[in-house]
Input
Amino acid sequence: MKRFGLATQIFIALVLGIGVGVAFHGNEGAVAVIAPIGDVFIHLIKMIVIPIVISALIVSIAGVGDIKKLGKLGGKSILYFEVVTTVAIAIGLLAANLFQPGTGLNMNKLQESDISKYEETMKATENPNVADIIVHLVPKNVFESIAQGDLLPVIFFSVFFGLGIAAVGEKGKPVLAFFEGVLEAMFWVTNVVMKFAPFGVFALIGVNVAKFGAASLIPLGKLVLAVYVTMIIFVVVVLGVIAKLSGTSVFLLMKVLKDELILAFTTASSEAVLPRIMDKMEKFGCPKSITSFVIPVGYTFNLDGSSIYQALASLFVAQMYGIDLSIMQQITLLLVLMLTSKGMAGVPGASFVVILTTLGAMGLPLEGVAFIAGIDRILDMIRTAVNVIGNSLAAIVMSKWEGEFDKEKAKHYIASFKESDVA
Output
C-alpha cells in the first residue's frame, strides 16, 4: 500500500470496511474481532492530542509573551466563533423547516438505541450558564484535566504557563527548549500513528455497518439527506464567502486538507487530524502563535458542523412527534442552542448531550433522540469534516485580522502543493 497516498489508502479501507460490515451484519463474533483495531486507533489519536496541544500552546505563547496581544486575539477569536456558529444554528433550523425530515415518519419502523449514558451526562451538566462555563475553564487540578482529556482547562493552563516562561526570561529558556523538543517529537509520533489510519478506518466503518446494517438508513434517509445537503451548502456558501473575504478559496483550502478531511470523515474524529491541520495552516502562512491558539480553542467553541446538526436534530424530534414550533419558539431554540453548544464543550458525546439538554429546556420529548442514535455515525462523519474546515479557515481569518498572515509563505506552499499534489 506504500505506493498509494494516505487519501487513497483510507478510501480503499472505507470500501473494504463497508463490504465486510454488510457481509457480517448482525454477527457479534465478527464485530468482537474487528472492533479492537478501531479502538486501538482511536486510543492512539487520543494519546497524541493532549501532549501536542500543551506543547504547541506553550511554545507559541512563550514566543508571543504579551498578555495584551493574547487577550486581543482571544477576544476576536471568541467573537468570530460565536457569530459563525450562530449562523450555522440558524441555517440548521431553516433547513429543518424546508426539508421537514421528521414529518410523517412512522416511528414503529425505527430502531431505538440506548441513550441512557447521554441522559446521565445531561443530568450531570444540566442548565449550564456563563458562570459555569467560566468556572469550568479554570482547572482545579491540571493533571486531572489532562487525564480526562478536557481541552478547555488544559488550554487555560498552557496559556498561563507559556506566559510564565516568557516572564522569567533567561531562566525559562531551558523549559521552552524542552517543550519545543516535545512538540517536534509528537509530530514525528503523529506521522507514525497516521500509517495505522487505514486499518482504523476499516475497523470503525466495518463495526458500525455490521451492527446497524445499511437498512437502518432507509427510514431516516430524509434526515441524512437534509444534514448532508445543508452542510455542503454551508461550506460552499457561508465558509466560501468568509474565505473569499479573507483572500483565499474554500475549495483551495479543501484541496490542501484533502487527506485530513478524508481521515476526519471516515473516522468521525476531528482529534485525528488536529496535529496535521495545525502544521498545514502554519505552512499556509498562519503564524504558529495563532494556529496553536485558535485551532485548539476552536475545537471547543467553533464546531460549525455540530451546530448545524444539533439544530436540525432538535427540530427533527419535534416534527417526528407532530409538535409545531412557532417562529418565537424557534428563536428561543436558537438562543438555547447558542448556550448549550458552548456549555457542553469537552463533554463525552457532546452533540447528543446538547440535543438532550436543548429538548429538555424546550419541553420536547427526550426519547426521540434514541431513534437517531443508530445512524449518528453516518451524520457524525460529515459534521466532523465541516468542523475541520471551519477551524482551519478560522486560523486564516484570525491571522489576516491580526495582520500577521504571511502571503509569500502561502504562495510558495500552494505552488509546491500544486506541483507535488501532496502536503
In short: The chain has 20 helices and no strands. The mean pLDDT is 83. Residues 28-64 form the longest helix (37 residues). The CA atoms of residues 137 and 382 lie 28 Å apart.
